Amino acid sequence: MNTEIINYSQCWEDPDIMLAALKINSDDKVLSITSGGDNTLVLLIAGPLKVVSVDMNIAQNYLLELKIVAARSLPYNEYLEFLGVTRSKQRLVLFEKVHSRLSDEAAVWWSAHVSLLKSGPIQCGRFERFTNIFASYILPLVHSKKTVAKLLAFDDLEKQCIFVKQKWDSKAWRFFFGLITSRFILKRYARQRGMFRYTEKETVANIYRKRLEQHLVSVPTKRNYFLHYILTGEYGETLPPYLEENGYTQLRTISDSALHITTSSIFNYLQSMPDNTFSKFNLSDIFEALSSAENDALWEQIIRTAKPGAVVVYWNNLVERSYPAYLSPKIKTDDNFVNQLRLKDKVFFYNSFHAHTILK
Ligand SMILES: C[S@@+](CC[C@H](N)C(=O)[O-])C[C@H]1O[C@@H](n2cnc3c(N)ncnc32)[C@H](O)[C@@H]1O
Fold first, then answer.
1. Nearest to 64 by CA among 38, 33, 42
2. Sign of the alpha-carbon torsion through 109, 112, 115, 117
3. Taking 50 as the threshold, does the pLDDT of residue 331 lie above it?
4. What digits encode the pLDDT tens for the residues 309-321?
5. pTM (2 d.p.)
6. Which residue minimizes the CA distance to atom 7 of ligand 1?
7. Which residues line ligand 1 (CB under 6 A)?
8. Within 13 Å of residue 188, how many CA atoms lie on the same side as its CB?
9. Which domains does the chain have, with CATH numbers?
């Protein structure tokens, strides 16, 4: 039995900017980091020929399998209920309907981890349990439910900015936000171990405070389900695309052969693949957990396995990673386009978003 834990039960990378950069076509072969599974599902819904979803943590892959099998086994209202989007007292009953359609390995794993299903699979990651503790126990010390609801209702950026300055950004908010985003707390309780390995920045809390300040004056809150989830433990009225009814309906019709899930480090996986295999890559922020040498070696594999004209997207959080300079003749970037997308990013905590085209 595998003893890996689920670190992320949702993807914390904005699928809208990912899709806008990747522009999926029906002949695309896509490589996607699994993480919480959400963005692999969003890519599948976009209708490529194939998505290969890779994660070195097998538990993340079992979660992806659970999400897609839930879409295929349950009516829409029960899908939302089972996954933990809406409230439920019958998740374990719903699990019985899903269980028989899982692969043997995933069925055994989930049966041994049914406690993770209690609040719904989307709530069970280490990171999500951390944000839930923040929303339930820490945020109420600073802002009332009414104030939180007001912050999350803005469609109009100008009014949002005034509210943030006058009501939200208090001394108490800064103090508690600083506390929970300190390197010490995030490393022990929130992010996957290893994500801080190459982070030299000690004053992480200040960095995140500035990023959130900037975010709150740039992106309207009303449909930002990432921010809703962090502050309330629920998504609000807008859902990630794989949870919207359209996405759900499409997930039910996609053929099994369109998705391949594999457990491996991305480097080892790509090393085993022939030249010119993938036309699109969604790489989360995996580069920052790699040393410089590992980063460069991975870029070599990406370029080798990329088809001519392939597009690669990824984010950087606390470590700024990029392709090595010697590979730059093989890479083209439309900085203006990427910067425009970055301005719309619904997740506040990244430093940068990247989309490159591979020339061969
Ligand atoms: C990179 S983490 C997401 C981190 C999150 N955005 C953050 O900043 O805390 C997403 C997923 O990538 C997987 N992962 C990280 N590095 C990987 C690698 N080299 N190969 C395969 N999967 C990897 C992890 O297991 C995890 O499930």
1. 38
2. positive
3. yes
4. 999 999 999 999 9
5. 0.95
6. 191
7. 7-8, 12, 33, 35, 54-57, 60, 191-192, 195, 265-266, 284-286, 289, 317
8. 6
9. 15-125+240-358 (3.40.50.150), 126-232 (no CATH)
